[in-house]
Amino acid sequence: MTDEDNSFYIDKTLYNGRPANSSDRLEKESRTYDLLDQLEIPYQRLDHEPLPTIDACREVDTLLNIDICKNLFLCNAKKTEFYLLLLPGKKKFRTACLSKQIGSSRLSFADPEFMIQFLDITPGSVSVLGLMNDRDNKVQLLIDKDVLSFEFFGCHPCINTSSLKMKTADLIDRILPAINHNYILVDLPDEPDPATN
């Protein structure tokens, strides 16, 4: 990205599957592709710089022809319970509403140290695919019901320099069972997030 024009690089080529050469990719990204290949899950990939703005995210959404979900890493006040919430990108996160549904008070964003410890991901790269690194099931997955209505699902491969598009059914029926994670369905109010309008 340059300071002069606030531009950012997006390779507008839609690739099927993993990079042909992964020598310059992080191990956690390669592990993500290994999992998807092992499960024979088809996906498309778009490579880009870390996306600095909502507008940049919208361009990726348009190129992939999906609405990439928000992936929020949360915890309770005591930092003893951890959650990964998936909700549509245009939905606003309402803490009180979610807390009531899952019976966990005073939810907040979890510290990056826990993100790294449990999911092997860093801020800006939060992804449901990071649950493959949560072998002790420290993180409970929460999925907003509207996510399940989308035919396709978008997320990062544990790093925010690529975005993936795959079938939502493959996430629910194949990936989550393979990584030994279940989910709790939540129903958050359908109020658009002003930041995405």
TrEMBL record:
<dbReference type="InterPro" id="IPR007214">
    <property type="entry name" value="YbaK/aa-tRNA-synth-assoc-dom"/>
</dbReference>
<protein>
    <submittedName>
        <fullName>Ala-tRNA(Pro) deacylase</fullName>
    </submittedName>
</protein>
<dbReference type="GO" id="GO:0002161">
    <property type="term" value="F:aminoacyl-tRNA deacylase activity"/>
</dbReference>
<comment type="similarity">
    <text>Belongs to the PRORSD1 family.</text>
</comment>
<feature type="domain" description="YbaK/aminoacyl-tRNA synthetase-associated">
    <location>
        <begin position="48"/>
        <end position="173"/>
    </location>
</feature>
<dbReference type="InterPro" id="IPR036754">
    <property type="entry name" value="YbaK/aa-tRNA-synt-asso_dom_sf"/>
</dbReference>
<dbReference type="Pfam" id="PF04073">
    <property type="entry name" value="tRNA_edit"/>
</dbReference>
<dbReference type="InterPro" id="IPR040285">
    <property type="entry name" value="ProX/PRXD1"/>
</dbReference>
